[in-house]
Design brief:
single chain; alpha+beta; 2 domains; 9 helices; about 15% strand
Length: about 350
């Protein structure tokens, strides 16, 4: 059986490595195209510095793309074995499906542990190095330290801050939204919402321009007696300065303050690599022709993306306080693992 295990592992590793390298490259190209205009406008990076930035981003990219690479590798390796009747030959020799899948499950566990370690240690270290480089650049005159996108900050006073784009050299913000929630209510009920097209941070004050200020009642509906007003300029004493915005963004995900959901999310995220194996196997284990291969691949990919979307929705629900943080991080894994194992048992029969 050790020969069989080595053979199956070899069949898996080559497509997995190819998929990882391809997806990392595609991710970098997509990010470069999406942010190229910002880089040119701010003059924030030389080509060498951009290369250095993307090299430091590789640990985070690996965490993001590893489930897709794992899924594609399982589909390709098992599908190829099935199309050449090797799975049928193994089963005819008295080897059960679960024994055939054991090497894939063990590899999935190893990948999960590796991604967990990368996410916990390397991602934070690489982010710290990037922020150190930005701070070094910021000490040089007439140079921009870069643009940071999609910042979410949540303080202990139940205020949620969202900055679409933040220039770390000028402290200028584009598309700012601030949500205040009723402090006395356990669930998050919106009390006030401020939206601005742009703004700037001066110390702990945020100066906002061209926006609207809306007030809500205790039911979370727009207060008809005092609905709010539009404004051209507004000053808000948030107590959050430029350094804090950069610091919390460098923590790795959304930079949410004091949020249990991020802790559970960081722990549960790597286990997607194990769950995708259970989702991919039932649709590729019995492929015998090209038409069946396409149908199996399509079905497994649809289920995977459904799983990933539900996982992200669950995390968002946990962050909004609609679901228990622990359940929001782990429940999608449990449900879809059970679904995958159920399909495997059905195929076994």
């Amino acid at each position: 059986m050790r020969i069989l295990d080595r053979y199956l592992i070899k069949k898996f590793l080559f497509p997995f490595i190819c998929c990882m390298l391809t997806l990392i490259l595609l991710y970098i190209i997509r990010d470069l195209i999406a942010n190229l205009e910002d880089y040119v406008e701010s003059g924030s990076f030389t080509p060498y510095e951009m290369l250095q930035r993307y090299i430091l981003s590789i640990p985070l990219i690996i965490v993001i793309v590893s489930p897709i690479a794992n899924m594609l590798a399982v589909i390709y390796s098992l599908g190829n074995l099935s199309m050449h009747n090797e799975i049928s030959a193994m089963r005819a020799s008295g080897i059960s499906i679960f024994r055939i899948l054991l090497p894939f499950i063990l590899i999935g566990l190893l990948i999960t542990l590796a991604i967990f370690s990368i996410n916990k240690y390397l991602v934070q270290d690489s982010n710290s190095l990037m922020m150190q480089e930005m701070q070094n650049k910021n000490s040089e005159p007439q140079k921009s330290a870069g643009i940071i996108s999609n910042i979410f900050l949540y303080d202990k006073n139940r205020c949620l801050y969202n900055i679409k784009k933040f220039d770390t050299s000028t402290s200028e913000m584009k598309t700012v939204e601030i949500k205040y929630f009723f402090a006395e209510k356990e669930e998050k009920v919106l009390r006030r919402r401020i939206y601005a097209e742009k703004g700037i941070i001066e110390g702990g004050k945020w100066i906002l321009f061209n926006g609207e200020n809306e007030n809500f009642n205790e039911e979370g509906k727009l207060d008809k007696a005092n609905p709010g007003e539009n404004f051209r300029r507004m000053e808000i004493d948030t107590g959050i300065d430029r350094e804090e915005v950069i610091q919390y963004k460098s923590m790795g995900n959304t930079g949410v303050f004091s949020s249990d959901i991020d802790k559970y999310h960081q722990t549960s995220l790597p286990f997607i690599n194990l769950v995708v194996i259970f989702l991919a196997v039932p649709f590729t284990i019995n492929i015998t022709k090209r038409g069946g291969a396409f149908a199996g691949i399509a079905a497994s990919m649809i289920i995977f993306f459904s799983y990933y979307i539900i996982y992200q929705v669950s995390i968002a629900a946990g962050r909004e306080g609609l679901v228990n943080p622990l359940l929001s991080a782990w429940m999608p894994h449990i449900i879809f693992s059970a679904v995958g194992i159920g399909f495997i048992i059905k195929v076994r029969r």
